[in-house]
Design a protein that fits this description.
mainly alpha, Rossmann fold, two-stranded parallel ribbon, 8% strand, globular
Length: 271
């Protein structure tokens, strides 16, 4: 979804993409809670320093949907905000989550069959209705745009037009990278190097230097570093027993989400 947003001439996305400002809880593979919210709105605004004032600004932090303190904080910041929710087939989301922990953060050592049974977050992140309930009680449903990622991949041009219409920007614009895959999974070679770069990056952002970072990205420096410090991975597959375990855990939540949105998501239970 990020590549659909960042290329539109009327939209400017944060640097980096995931700010983790409104949330406190972090993934199970992080030992500490986020303290970013307590740094204040000036710190948050620095992530958009590169944006022109007349552009629509946004960010993408998946963690927001999992932290119940987030909805009210967002509303206090901007009660008229537009919220985009990406819905992904739970099995695919769990596999992606697993590889992020295993290969990117290098914090997951268990086989996936063990991990999904021992770590509640893998299943919990797929309980969309439960996780969105605090948002539904805080914001009007018309402020949400629900994107089914499987449908978006099958017809990206139609999806991007609907998304732009929701955001009230020119819906006729078609990104030249619309068919690109967003964030293909790769394994980190050196976690120490990645963390050092992240620390430097965060320091530059806090100093209001996001325009400088954007300049370096346009030169291709980020792609070069990521390419040198990462490697392709083989995607893990879920066993039939794993799929049944997931199905039993999410079935009721899927039914509630289907009723709320008036859309049948029952195919998630057999994919």
């Amino acid at each position: 979804m990020g590549h659909m947003l960042e290329r539109h001439p009327e939209i400017c996305m944060s640097e980096p993409k995931e700010v983790n400002y409104f949330n406190e809880s972090l993934s199970f593979n992080k030992s500490q809670a986020s303290t970013n919210y307590h740094r204040g709105e000036h710190w948050y605004a620095n992530h958009f320093k590169h944006c022109q004032k007349n552009k629509l600004k946004g960010e993408i932090t998946p963690r927001y949907i999992l932290d119940p303190v987030v909805p009210q904080r967002i509303k206090d910041h901007n009660p008229d905000i537009k919220l985009i929710v990406c819905l992904r087939t739970p099995n695919k989301r769990i596999i992606s989550h697993y590889h992020s922990a295993k290969d990117f953060h290098k914090s997951e050592k268990r086989p996936i069959s063990v991990a999904i049974r021992e770590e509640p977050e893998y299943i919990g992140a797929c309980l969309y209705y439960k996780n969105l309930a605090p948002f539904f009680s805080t914001f009007d449903l018309k402020q949400f745009y629900f994107m089914d990622l499987d449908e978006a991949k099958s017809n990206p041009a139609a999806e991007v037009k609907r998304l732009y219409t929701f955001l009230r920007v020119d819906p006729s614009f078609l990104p030249d990278n619309i068919m690109d895959k967003s964030n293909p999974a790769r394994a980190t070679k050196s976690v120490r190097l990645r963390k050092a770069i992240s620390k430097i990056h965060g320091g530059l952002i806090s100093s209001g230097l996001s325009p400088f970072i954007i300049f370096l990205k346009k030169l291709g420096l980020g792609r070069i570093i990521n390419s040198l410090n990462s490697a392709p991975i083989k995607i893990t597959e879920l066993s039939p027993e794993d799929k049944l375990f997931i199905k039993n855990a999410i079935e009721e939540d899927v039914q509630k989400l289907s009723l709320l949105l008036g859309k049948d998501f029952s195919h998630w239970l057999i994919e």
